[in-house]
Amino acid sequence: MDLEQNKAIEKSLQEVISKEAANELAYKAGTELIELHRNIYEQMAIQNLLPEEITVKSVLTELYELTEADFSKELSLSDLQDLMFQKVDVLAGLLGIELE
User: Fold this and answer.
1) For residue 51, is it within any domain?
2) Count of domains in the chain?
3) Does one domain contain both 35 and 8?
4) Inside any domain, residue 33
5) How far are the Cα atoms of 55, 58, 60, 61 from residue 65, in angstroms, in the given order?
6) Which pLDDT score, from 0 to 100, does residue 81 have?
7) Same domain assignment for residues 9 and 42
8) What is the C-alpha to C-alpha distance for residues 75 and 87, in angstroms, rounded to an integer?
9) Residue 15, burial from CB neighbour count under 10 angstroms (0-12, 13-18, 19+)
10) pLDDT, position 20
11) Within this chain, do residues 38 and 13 fall inside the same structural domain, yes or no?
């Protein structure tokens, strides 16, 4: 993961946890990151917060919502492009299309 991606993750995490914790989590890697994911996944399961199955319709809905949102104050153009790319990548995977 590159430094720019780590910084974007850190910024996002700071909205829900302390600055120090966000900094520490954004730079986790390898087995520490896997263990962290397992623990969070388990906690989400206990609280019935696991996301529903990803479908083409749900991804298209999210893409549509992104086009309607006002990001001028909250996200940079680069952050918006990253979000769009992630959604398109998920959609391509669901449709069995390999993007180049």
Assistant:
1) no
2) 2
3) yes
4) yes
5) 15, 11, 9, 6
6) 84
7) yes
8) 16
9) exposed
10) 92
11) yes
Instruction: Supply the range of the domain harboring residue 35.
Output: 3-46
**Which amino acid makes up residue 29?**
A
pLDDT digits 0-9 by tens, 20-77: 998 998 888 889 989 998 999 899 989 999 888 889 999 999 898 888 777 666 667 7
Task: Give residue 30's region: left, alpha or beta (phi > 0; psi -120 to 50).
Answer: left
Structure tokens given for 44: 């989400």
Distance (Å, whole) CA 46 – CA 34: 18
61 and 81 co-located in one domain: yes
Q: What is the pTM of this model?
A: 0.49
3-state secondary structure the chain: CCHHHHHHHHHHHCCCCCHHHHHHHHCCCHHHHHHHHHHHHHHHHHCCCCCCCCCHHHHHHHHHHHHHCCCCCCCCHHHHHHHHHHHHHHHHHHHCCCCC
